[in-house]
Amino acid sequence: MNLGRIAALSLAALLSGTSLTLAQTLTIATVNNSDMIIMQRLAPRFEQATGIKLNWVVLEENVLRQRVTTDIATKGGQFDIVTIGAYETPIWGKQGWLTPVDDLGDDYDYGDLFEPVKNGLSHQGKLYAVPFYAESSFTFYRKDLFEKAGLQMPDRPTYAQVAEFAQKLHDPNNGVYGICLRGKPGWGENAAYVTTVVNTFGGRWFDMEWKPQLTSGPWKEAVNFYVDTLRKYGPPGAAANGHNENRALFASGNCGMWVDATSAAGYIFNPKESKVAEKTAFTNAPVAKVPNGAGWAWSWALGIPTSTKNSEAAKKFVEWATNKEYVKLVGETEGWVSAPPGTRKSTYANPDYKKAAPFADFVLQAILAADPAKPTAEPVPYTGVQFVAIPEFQAIGTQVGQNIAAALAGQTTVDQALQTSQSAVERTMRQAGYPK
Amino acid sequence: MTNATAGRRPSPLAYGLMTVLGWTAALVMFFPIFWMLLSAFKREIDAIAVPPLLVFEPTLENFAAVQGRANYFGAAWNSIVISVGSTILGTLLALPAAYAMAFYPGPRTKDLLLWMLSTKMMPAVGVLVPLYLLFKNTGLLDTRTGLVIITTLANLPIIVWMLYSFFKEVPGEIIEASRMDGAKPFQQFALVLMPLALPGIASTALLSIILAWNEAFWTINLTAANAGPLTAFIASFSSPEGLFWAKLSAASTLAVAPILVFGWMTQRQLVRGLTFGAVK
Amino acid sequence: MNAPLSPAASVAAASATALAFRRKPLVRTGALLAPAVAVLLLWMIVPLAMTLWFSVQRYNLLDPSISGFAGFDNYEFLLTDPVLPTVVLNTIKLLGGVLLASVVFGTLLAVLLDQDFFGRGIARLLVIAPFFVMPTVSALVWKNLLMHPVNGFFAWVATSLGFRSIDWFTDLPMAAIVTIVSWQWIPFATLILLTALQSLDREQIEAARMDGARGFTLLRFIILPHLARPISVVVMIETIFLLAVFAEILITTGGGPGQATTTLTYLIYLRALLEWDVGGASAGAVLAIVLANVVAFFLVRTVARNLDR
Asked: Which of A148, A335, A372, B181 could serve as a FRET partner for B163 with CA atoms 20 to 30 Å apart?
């Protein structure tokens, strides 16, 4: 008995020893957003604790996506852990390219993760990547300008109100534009934002038969509203402004309002990055007719390709980087305002975090409201709030985004832009063999 | 005194005028880079300030941030290995070919040249997947060897074409004369042609190094943690999310610095070599 | 040493015709050409064959359920795309604009930098420097630090002088991209043309000067003819690289507004790296190769007839 136990133990030690030597190095592909940079900075603690060495490949978002997609789809096996978004996770999970990660142990506390965020990273109920941080969209506004104009921002503004405010705040001669919104073509730029406007006007990308709905009433209304408002009360060059350009405009005090990612709140609040840190307030994303999908749902998550040979060690790392202790570690070492937002209930129950991040409640509301599984008022065959989780969407979204930008630049009418978009999307869907 | 400077001295007026004109042009061309260099020493908030800040408190925090996050020297070393390696390999392959085409042209030479160039026209984005599979199966993914090979292939047509056009500038009579004196083909090549074509070869090599240094598609898409050069290093500092001008400027400054210094050094070599070339 | 050769002798011989000599196939050129040709053949044939093969397949990297022989479907899809004419036209605009700018400014800069003046070495380096900057970086710098209509440097200059700032990427998107790409490629033209000018016979210039040729006449009758070949080299090589431009477009305008800045390469990028439709992208690649060859052929024959001399 005793002997057997010793034998078993030494065998186990031997096995774990060998698996340790086999799994000594992990290659992690990640995006260069600030939360991931913090992870990279803290990672030596993981290396010391486990003896696993980490190699980092840090790339900007578009390049990372293209790099990781090539590798995973050709089973290149270059990466043990990949940082992926809410868009590709369900698609890749469906293809069997990702190892399910719902077995990270009891300590991991899956119940602590927000349901909509988990939904966005699952395919048929299986979790394929663990959320690192999550964001929705909401409204940034300048409380000083609102005060000066005698305006009161409601808790849940309507788009009609937003247009009215924008008109009153618009003062181009003094370098203040009523509202800044994304206009640069791209599936992750203007198409993402416009989709949320369409959602709340009651529209959708496809009906249940995968027929594109771009010439339907809600699309026309929503895009007309977006183009009108931005043309009248937006900054010059709006058709080329993406998230970054708008962030720079808002941070340097050029915008009265800005509807964009909740994750930008931390920067706008940081006086080193923003001139309006003291003067900014937040509220929910505006709504028009229905509340569904008015704010988007995005998350960056860690996934493990099936092509890796080190999946056990990789699981250890993703567990470490997304559990409650990690959130606490970031809060204590980097300051609570930098804690990865949007993934765990415990973060939002933490008084330290709430004190450091006054926008926390709005972010929480926005994230809980944006459910990728139920993005629109009418039923749809897809998941995703500001995107459609099908492989074709990156191209479709970019092309439609180009046409909307043309309307914004005044080159075509909104109706023409939507008509062109409709036929382009129909073509692409037919080519891709829909309906499936 | 060499040929290039053997002309009469320009009048002081012309000299002064040329100095003004030359420097105006140079400063206009250089302005965006100057602006980038300046931004590298600003805080992020100052980098986007309107009106632009010309006077500010310089900071090194961007360089510290860059160095803290990425292995600059590793990436720079990879860049050097890849650009120099591919240039040497490419030049060795191209020299004989260009020599043969320039001095012993056949009826198909021009077609061959055009065909070589047309290999360059294949859009890289279109062949990424086939090539990735090829690299995966040969174990070349994320290796410097693999990148030297691909960069050589990518630049070879250009090198051949440029060497060809420089060789064509060398009068055939010189080669002819040396042959009359009994020089064998290799001797003609090494002792007669090489010294004459040296400036051309030097500027071709310089170009090849620059092109390899800036090649940002294959070098990013075929590497991971080991072989990534400065292009991959840069790609980790531009971002669709967040303010990054100052850090990007700092990273770019670091990435551009070695090749700029190299360019400056070879610039002198180039000019000296060029005066040899004025023999014609 | 078998190379007794004086510059004087070679200059004396320079008027003799070289053609007779060049036609004599005295050495076997096969062995010299073989390595480069073989390597390129491999480089050309393997991906080209794969591209051709994939272009008649249904193959989406992200969706293995799509498979099988597609016949000419991918081509049909591409060629019936209503935006194709615009896209081809944009490609030509970009190409033509940048080529024109880099030849004109490249020549002017080369002539200027060939003169003797104070600090010429450094001025040369400054002119050539933009060539060292990666396309993504230069696009970002131009878009956000220089051309942005609100917080860009140009806007600041314009408004300080009392003008309205230009909304580059909305009103003049193609011109903006041509400007950025030209800025990157003018140095290349300058470098090549400068190298060529350096090999121009100084005595010839002096002789022309003695005969009273000045400024424009000198440029028109002595310098430009000498530059014809290097210009054709510039045109040829830049054509190849310009056809591959997409990072600048992606970063600045995303191909818009509308299709105003969508080029063929950008369209292929959409297919290949956003949609991961390998079949469609391959068909696009084949079209691009054909188009590139047509353009190259046309350019080389018209611009550089002197190659046949």
From this structure: B181
| A136-180 tens-digit pLDDT | 999 999 999 999 999 999 999 999 999 999 999 999 999 899 999
| E runs forming strands in A308-371 | none
Instruction: Confirm if C126 and B208 have CB atoms less than 8 A apart.
Output: no
Burial A158-196 (b: 16+ CB within 10 A, else e): ebebbbebbeebbeeeebbbbbbbbbbbbbbbbbbbbbb
3-state class of C210 per DSSP?
Answer: helix
Using a CB–CB cutoff of 8 Å, tell me whether B75 touches chain A: no
Which residues in A lie closer than 8 A to residue B226 (C-beta atoms)?
Answer: 55
Query: What is the distance between the alpha carbons of residues A337 and A355, in angstroms, rounded to a whole number?
Result: 9
Partner B contacted by C43 (CB < 8 A): yes
Q: How many other C-beta atoms can be found within 10 angstroms of the C-beta atom of residue A83?
A: 27
Q: Do residues B223 and B147 make contact, with C-beta atoms less than 8 angstroms apart?
A: yes
Whether the CB of C266 is below 8 Å from some CB of chain A: the reply is no
* Spatial CB neighbours of A137, under 8 Å, sequence gap ≥ 6: A193, A196, A259, A260, A261, A262, A285, A295, A296, A366, A386
| ipTM over 0.85 threshold | no
On average, the pLDDT of chain C sits at 79
Across A115-254, the runs of DSSP E, i.e. the strands, are: 122-123, 126-127, 130-135, 137-142, 177-180
HSE of C129 in the Cβ direction (CA atoms, 13 Å)? 28
For residue A16, name the pLDDT band (cuts at 50, 70, 90). Answer: very low
Strands A255-261 and A137-142 turn out to be antiparallel
CB atoms inside a 10 Å sphere around CB C210: 8
Q: What is the largest CA-CA distance in chain C?
A: 77
Q: Confidence class of residue C247 from pLDDT cuts 50, 70 and 90?
A: confident
- Could you give the count of Cα atoms lying within 13 Å of A117 in the half-sphere of its Cβ? 28
What pLDDT shows up at residue B2?
Answer: 37
Least confident of A88-97, A283-292, C32-41: C32-41
Task: Name the residue among B267, B253, B272 with its Cα closest to residue B42.
Answer: B253
Q: Where are the beta strands (DSSP E) in chain B?
A: none
How many Å is the Cα radius of gyration of chain C?
24
Q: Nearest to residue C281, comparing CAs of C41, C94, C52?
A: C52
Residue A260's Cβ-count burial label (10 Å; 0-12, 13-18, 19+) is buried
pLDDT band at C34; cut points 50, 70, 90: confident
Tens-place pLDDT, residues A95-117: 999 999 999 988 899 999 999 99
Structure confidence at residue C239 (pLDDT): 85
In the block, tokens 């991906």 appear at C47
User: φ and ψ at A177, to 5 degrees?
Assistant: -105, 140
Q: Number of C-alpha atoms within 13 angstroms, CB side, residue A57?
A: 29
CA atoms of A92 and A69, how far apart (whole Å) = 9
Higher pLDDT, B39 or A127: A127
Q: Which of C146, C199, C299 to mutate to test the interface with B (most CBs of B within 10 A)?
A: C199
**What are the pLDDT digits (tens) for A20-49?**
444 489 999 999 888 898 999 999 999 999
Q: Is A75 on the interface with C (CB under 8 A)?
A: no
Nearest CA-CA partner of B172 in B190, B193, B195? B193
Cα–Cα distance measured from residue C169 to residue A234, given in angstroms and rounded to the nearest whole number? 15
* CA dist., res. C55 & res. A26, Å (int): 37
Q: Which residues of C touch A429 (CB under 8 A)?
A: none
Strand partners, C57: C69
Phi, psi angles (nearest 5°) of residue A158: -95, 160
Q: Which two tokens stand for residue B270?
A: 């180039």
Task: Give the model's confidence band at C305: pLDDT under 50 very low, under 70 low, under 90 confident, else very high.
Answer: low
